[in-house]
Amino acid sequence: MQSVWAKPVAAYSALGIRLSSHVRVTANITIGHETSGKPVEFDIEELLATRLLVQGNSGSGKSHLLRRLLEESAGMVQQVVIDPEGDFPSLAEEFGHVVIDGAAYSPPEIEALARRIREHRASVVLDLDGLEVEQQIRCAAQFLSALFDAPREHWYPALVVVDEAQMFAPAAAGEMAEDTRRMTLSAMTNLMCRGRKRGLAGIVATQRLAKLAKNVAAEASNFLMGRTFLDIDMVRAADLLGMERRQAERIRELERGHFLALGPAITRLPVACKIGPVKTGHQARSEGLMALPDTAPEDMADLLTRDLASDVAKAPPPPAPPPAPRLEEMEDSIAHAEERQVEAPAEKPDNSAVAQRIEELIGELAGEEGIAFQSASAQYQTFLTRCRRERLIGPMPDMHTFRRRFAIAGAGLAELGEDLQARIMHLASAVDDDLLGPFLVIAKAAHAGETQVDEDELARAYGTSSPGRIRRLLDHLARQGLIVVREDFGGGRTVMVPDLEGLPAE
Q1: Which parts form a coiled-coil structure per UniProt (predicted)?
Q2: 205 C-beta neighbours (distance < 10 Å), count
Q3: What pTM value is reported for the model?
Q4: Burial (0-12, 13-18, 19+ Cβ within 10 Å), 296
């Protein structure tokens, strides 16, 4: 299957755009600044793989944050916005987004539009402001499901922003129909849990974490937490940020437009961030007080009631809604949207050189002192950080693949040659990821004819300094039938790997 990272290059070629060898793509945008003035950056490539959750009470600046994120990344990646309040159509004039009025189309047409959006990689705003709440939910659910079910050849990377996500993924049934609730929960769960392999990166914003379905919120790895006052929401936000509960009060004291940020696409430690300015949208109204008019009460009453009946008679009838554009016109608009949005074409990466450098980085990481004592997630985040530091653009190994390659490098299996390495890995196919490193150390020693395993080396591979854990590890591998352990009366231990005797030395 073609990698989603290579598909934008193919799309440029299909449009007749020649890729310059001198153009370098940066995946970082600045979302705001810390109190010290240091910029807070977002790695958009990492965001595509790890998703984002935004929380904040009404008036905390969530929509401003989302607009800043969309504006700064508009030239990098396709964007799809689910907009229940009509806040984001202003993106169209400045950045070329196609605005789709959800009230103007039937359910089958909404699904057809979603399929065409994925095919043509158009950035769109689905404006649901003209619909009742339950119709908004059903329209968004069908639209998201169609995006998710697009053909494999259209799995291009895209940010999918869902504002007011507690409407579309409620923690409780509320007043909506049960079939509507099941439909929207399924669509949102697919977006957040399974969308990554289809190139869809969910960005959900909610006023209250307690109202958002937990299986949707739990899939986000990046967090921007704004001002909130209820204890239950503060505690959940503090837990997600890795803060102690006594520090949760800090979330209540945040000013408008200030957020606490954490995640692999932003920062590995929580930082306070003030969101930067935006180009589109309405200017914020003044929050100060204004003096009331000094009109006398009787004069004010006269102003309000004078000629009221004639005013009503002269009022023009409300204008008829404009006709919805035909699907053919919308298809043409979507098909040409990418041409308006593309800025600088990207340099086609050398995938073979990238893959070789990734293997070198894994080997360097596996050889570092003390790295095996870190958790697997910490090792993986360190690896991804070094890849970003070197601006490696291309398909990255997922956590499972990384852990197995890390174990191979740590055990030094590369010294045995590719053929023997492949046969040993075949024997290790049933070994769990967290036990693969020590098993490969044992297998390598057994192949060399050694029956006494170096327990210090085994401890390093397992990430422990406890002799008891080593004994339990060997007992567990023996119960699984992966090794045979024999102990003599003197306490000596002989370890063998079944079926390894048939592998010739090289």
Answers
A1: none
A2: 22
A3: 0.57
A4: exposed
